[in-house]
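Course assignment 3, question 2. Fill in each field.
Student: A.L.
Task: Predict the tertiary structure for the chain below.
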Amino acid sequence: MDYGRFIYERDKKAKEAKRKQHTVEIKEVKFRPNIGDHDFNTKVRRANKFLKSGQHVKLTIMFRMRELRRPENGYEILQRATRKLAPVAAVETPPPDRLSGRDLSMVLRPSN
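Answer field:
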């Protein structure tokens, strides 16, 4: 068998397999632990729009300095957002039990 032909066939198969792959696009919505109600509702509305268009959404809580002392505030924000988005979303990756670093995040997927 011709080696050049083998390489050509291998590359052609790889390109065809890549074309058929479905990539999941993840949109990120960032919150702060002491977010106001109006800002919270605005960000949840944006996440809702992303989920309805079929994209996964990563909800991230960003902590700074003293906010790191009370990570339960971040968990509460994530729970509120999950409750509001429950009709259109399902939890794909729940938040970790312990805070690692300065961010706390979870991933939601559309529940179609």
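Instructor remarks: The chain has a mean pLDDT of 88. Strands lie at 26-31, 56-62, 89-93, 103-110.
Grade: pending
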